[in-house]
Structure formats: C-alpha cells, structure tokens
Amino acid sequence: MSSSAPQDTGHRLWSVDEHLADVLSAVRPLEPIELQLLDAQGCVLVEDVTVPVALPPFDNSSMDGYAVRTADVQGASEEFPAVLTVVGDVAAGSGELPTVGPGEAARIMTGAPLPPGAEAVVPVEWTDGGTGGGAAAGMTPASAAPEHAGGEVRVHRAAEARAHVRARGSDVQAGDLALAAGTILGPPQIALLAAIGRGTVRVRPRPRVVVMSTGSELVQPGEALTAGTIYDSNSFALAAAARDAGAIAYRVGAVADDADTLRATIEDQLIRADLLVTTGGVSVGAYDVVKEALSCVGHSDAIDGDGEDVDGGRMDFRKLAMQPGKPQGFGTIGPDHTPLLALPGNPVSSYVSFELFVRPAIRALMGLPESEVRRPSVRAVLSADKALGSPAGRRQFLRGTYDAENGTVSPVGGSGSHLIAALAHADSLMVVPEDVTSVEPGTELEVILLG
Fold it and tell me: Which of 18, 35, 213, 248 is the most buried (most CB within 10 A)?
C-alpha cells in the first residue's frame, strides 16, 4: 500500500455538501457477483428477474377439505347433507390424482393440486369428516385412519365454482417481472426468488467496511480501567452503524497513538476492505497520529512516465463548517485506491460524521439509487423550553426526538460532542443552518431521521 503525502486543506472551511460530494465522487459501486440466495440478503440486484414458471404452477387447494363437483353439493345443509363417495386422498406433492366423478369427492390437503373433475373445495369443517357424526373439527391423520380416504362424507354446505381454489398463475405469470434491477434483497424478495426456482442471483455485494479507533487511552469493554483510560465505544458504534447501513463490518480494536503501529494495521486491513474508517487523530494535537501515519504509508519506488507514484493515493485533511465534526480526513489509499474516511474522535462527532459521510459512501458502494443513499429528512417544528444557540458560520447537528404524529422535534441533551447518553436516546438530528445563530421554539427545522 502506498499514499502520497496528505494534503492539509485546513486553510479554508469546507461545507458539509462540498465534503460529501468529494467523498461520493471517489466511490464507485462494487462489481457484481453471483451469490447464493441467503448470501445475497441485503444486496442490490443488478439484473431484472423474470418468472420462468407460473406461481402457483397448478390449481391447488387453499384449505384442508374435500374436492367436489359444485352440482353435487348444491343446496347442501346440515339437515339435508350431500352424501358423496370418497375416492381417495390428494396430498401436497401428489403425482397421480384420482378423478372426481358425479357423486364423488376426494380428501384434499392445503397446497395439493385440484384433481381432475373437481370444481371446488369444501373445508373439512363444512363436513362430517367421513365419520358419520356432526361437523368435523379437522381431518383424521391418514396414517391413523387410512380408511377415511374411502367411504362416504356428508357435506353440510354448498360451494361455488373455484371456491377455496388457488388458480394457476394467480400470484405471478410466466414471463412477468419478478424483481427489477436495483431492488434490495430482503426476506420477502429472497422468498420470491426461491419460489420461482432461482438458486443464485447476480448482485452487488455488501461492502466490507473496516472500522478502527485510535488512542492509547482506549480500553476494550470488559477489561479494567486504569488511570487516564476510557472504554472504546467509537469502534463499536461505527461498526454497528456500518452493519445498519448494509455493510459487512470488521471492527479493529483500539490502535495506540503510534504512527508505525497504525500504518501497519492499515496495511494489514486493506486486503479485506472496500472502505476504511478511522476515528480519532485528525485534529491538530501532538498525538493525532492518523495524519502522521498517512503521510508516509508504504511509499512505492514504482513511478510512471508522468512521475506519479503508480500505487499512490491521496489523503486530504480539512476543516468543515459544521458542529460537531469540524476536523475530517478523506482520501484513497493502496494499490486499489481504497476509500478511507478519517473521522474525529469525540463519540458524537464520529457518529454524526458517519451518518453524514460514511453511510452515504457505503450505500453508494452498494449501487443504490441516489434517493436511497442518504437518510430521509422531514420538516418539523422545534418543541423546546428555550431557544437553541448555534455558532455563526457552522451547520449544527443537534440530537433530537421526532414526534411524527404532531410534527415536532425536541432536543435531547446538550451540544457537547462527548455526550453519548444523549445520543443513545435520540432518533434524529436537528439541522441548524450556517446563517442561523438562534432557533426559537416553534421554528420549523430540517430533521434527519436516524431510525
């Protein structure tokens, strides 16, 4: 892996929209692959899928009961039941089917093909079940009483033609479009593909996202804290957020504030990454090692005719006109020019940055349409006890709870970028524009929905 020296573009403030556009311009949808159905869950279909055979492929029963001719049960009642001769059983998966002639019926199970001659199905509850008694509550199992596949059955109610019959092709017809390219494959879509006989499908794979947090002060949950240490929450939060966005997430435990260690870790992780995300080490401190590490990651001696490092990428570190999340880094690294987003280390800053920049990058890698790349947003009225302040020239993102029924949004916690508890109770982000420094209760705001 190699990279050209990072460009510190912090001499000017980038807007949120400029930074996002820069990120998305460097992200291309992953190449399609053929996957088994369950492996394709959560992936985006890249081809139209048409139905090869009608579904259902044959007329079948929607009830457990008796396949009959309508003329034979016309006018049937409990007082004057229609008495029919049972000519056999028709179970789901049956091959050879008995023919139902005048005065005859066949026991039929849900999903079983309608036998020749039959025009309708009467539920077993409309009959005596072949027992000679009153209304049946169910069928006697064939293994326990095979004789009930013969004998007589009394039918207590009439049935119209096609009653309780699922018609061939009533779900989809052969040649119909089953799923269009661009469809995200969830459980119902997987079920449909299986039902029409598809064992594999061509999709864009779920992106592999490697998340790593940096900081010598970080301790893994479950271990004991010592003086000056805190638990690493960022890598867990961002790995979970990556999965929520549709990615396969790999979490790397906290990397110490050492450039060589971080550089080696990034080198090791490139092989399994379609996208790298780091958190921490992007500001102006003496121990902000992400900048230091990426200034000399694996310089290559291979130079092309234009004097460029053929394996090189580019990393930019910049300041954004937003709060929280002002310091950001973005670039591509390694021979495959793998995108890397370097997020700030404060928990709320890193999470807000993920939602605004990393999630869209993941969704773009999946090949989703532009309308599916960003979180949905709505307009809502601020419900608060007092006005909310916002720094001039910064787009502020405040945690909130959205009430869809009343069309209002309420702040949760303060504006501090370390307030994890407040973030855990928020379901939205309230957006305060750059040119607004105070938002009075009752003001309408843009609200980004996180759930």
Answer: 213
